[in-house]
Amino acid sequence: MRIPKILQIIRFHIVAGGALAFLLGALLATVGGAGFDFVRVGLVYLVVFFGDLSTHFSNDYFDVDVDLFGGQRKFFSGSRILVSYPSLRSLAWSVSIALMVLSDAVAALLVVFFGLPAELLVIAVGANFLGWFYSAPPVRLISRGLGEVVVAVVVGLAIPGVGYLAVRGSFDWLFACFVVPFVLYGLMLSLSLGAPDREIDLRGGKRNFVVRKGERSVFGVVLAGTCLASLGFVVCALLGLFVVVDFWVVFLFSLVPLLAGVVGFVGVFRERSVLFFSGLNTVSLFLFNALMVVYLLFAVLLA
């Protein structure tokens, strides 16, 4: 009874999104000329997988008081299992710690015995630290106005970065061209996921962006971020950087989150459903990553 219930904390669609971002980074490195070792990439992904799962349990554990306020169930929100079954709280805490330690341990073993760069361990430890203190006291970054930044860095930099390191072994200018747009998309994801929960988060003491600035400001920042990301790809295309990647194609893909950003911005100012436009933004980012993975996969196969 305890095991099936505790496993319901895992949001498999979030795991899928993380896997897609990791694969994007790995394929980007492969297009850049590095060899793709399936075993090596699979082992490195375990670092991301265990770290990702750890945050599912820790966030549910530390957000129980906020989840008590209830509200409409969101697709990407916490499971609220610990609200219904408080006896599972200690188990959730233990599982989160175990997964975080396992993530760091795998990263350390890969560095020591498989020749992965030390940056992998630094990123793993740093991302797990941020993931834990995203909601854990006394730091609780989400209550200090830094939660969106944490998600942007982890989703936009750390996860695809680990995928890149798994193949390339080091960062280079090709990856650097994608860092700012990826982080901006990570910020878009974080802001969009928090937008529908403003009233609940306000009552729960969170000091995230939507609580402090409101839904309209959230979608204004999202729109600005998607515009900057698309502009970055245009600049890379005009400069003719890295012929291994056609940045005009990447720009074309970036129009998906940009269009979602425009629609959401207009819709929220017309006082339409914030939940709908939040979901639209999230789906657009998943679609962008999926299109990028397919494009890079074809580029690798045709090389």
Describe it for me?
By secondary structure, this protein is an all-alpha fold. It has one domain (2-302): Farnesyl Diphosphate Synthase (Orthogonal Bundle), CATH 1.10.600. The protein is 77% helix and 0% strand. It has 14 helices and no strands. Helix 3 (38-62) runs antiparallel to helix 6. The termini are far apart. The mean pLDDT is 90.
Sequence-ordered SSE layout with sheet pairings:
Blueprint (H helix, E strand, L loop, with lengths): L1 H6 L4 H20 L6 H25 L1 H4 L13 H4 L4 H25 L4 H16 L13 H22 L4 H22 L3 H6 L5 H5 L1 H25 L7 H23 L4 H29 L1
Helix pairs in contact: 2-3, 2-8, 2-14, 3-6, 3-7, 3-8, 6-7, 7-8, 8-9, 9-12, 9-14, 12-13, 13-14
Rg calculated over all Cα atoms: 19 Å
CATH architecture: Orthogonal Bundle
Q: Which fold name fills CATH's third level, the topology?
A: Farnesyl Diphosphate Synthase
Identify the CATH class.
Mainly Alpha
Strand content: under 5%
Q: What is the arithmetic mean of pLDDT?
A: 90
Q: How does the helix and strand content classify structurally?
A: mainly alpha
Q: What is the β-strand count?
A: 0
* Principal-axis shape: globular
